[in-house]
Amino acid sequence: MxxxxxxxxxxxxxxxxxTTAQNKEHxxxxxxxxxxxxxxxxxxxxxxxxxxxxxAPYYELADKGIQIDIATPLxxxxxxxxxxxxxxxxxxxxxxxxxxxELLNKLKHTLRLANVKESDYxxxxxxxxxxxxxxxxxxxxxxxxxxxxYTNNKPVAFVCHAPAVLKDVKIxxxxxxxxxxLTGFSNAEEAAVGLTNIVPFLLEEVLQANGGIYSKxxxxxxxxxxxxxxITGQNPASSKLVAQKLLNQLNNKK
Length: 254
Hints:
Elements: H1 2-26, E1 29-33, H2 51-62, E2 67-72, H3 92-99, H4 101-108, E3 111-112, E4 123-126, H5 140-151, E5 156-159, E6 170-171, E7 174-175, E8 181-182, H6 187-192, H7 203-209, E9 213-214, E10 224-227, E11 230-233, H8 239-252
Parallel strand pairs: 1-2, 1-4, 2-3, 4-5, 5-11, 8-9
Antiparallel strand pairs: 6-7, 10-11
Helix pairs in contact: 2-3, 2-8
C-alpha cells in the first residue's frame, strides 16, 4: 500500500514538472524596443520614451502571462521623457510603474538591440515618446528586426511617435506601410505640444508619403488601427488599446 502511494506521488510529481515545462514552452513572448535617445533636437531639453506608452502595454500584456524582454539601441537604462514623469501626466499604470522596483531594475539592464533575434519572440512592440524619431527611425538593427517579424507572420505594434520607426522599413522593395491602414501622433497633436519645428520630421506626413493610409481621431482621444499584422495607436491614451489588439492576435495564434 505504501509503495503504491509512493509510486502515485512520483508519477504526479513528474506529471506536474512536465506540465510546467509545457506551459513555459507555450508562453508567448514579446520584445519591447525602446529608444536610447535623450536630446530633444536643439532645444537643450531632454526627451526619451513616454512612461504611459511603456507602462500601460507592459502591464496589459504581463498581467495576462505574456513574457516581456526589453531592448534598446545602446543597452542599459533608456531615458524617460521628464514630462511623462510629471504628476500631471500620471495614470494608474504610471503610478504602478513608479513603485515597481522589479520593472525599474529590469529597465536598467535592457538588452542591446543588436543582440536580439526575432526567432526568440512572438511579436514586437514599440512605445513612443519623441526619442525614437532620432534613433530608432534609422537604426539598422531595428529596421531589420521589424522586417523579420513581419515576413515571419508575427505582429508588429507601435504607439504614438513609434510608428515613425517604420519610415525606412521595406518588404520586398516596397515600404511596409504602403497600402496599409495606420495611425500615429498627428500633425495637430505635434502642433499642440509646440514641437512641429523641432522634430526631424512629421510622422503623419512621412507615413502618408510612403503610401500609408493614415487616419486619426480628435487630439488625445484613444484610437488604434489594426491592418493584418500591423497595429498602430495615435497617442499616449491609445497605448492600452494597442496592447489589447496585440494580445488578441497572440491569443489567436497557435
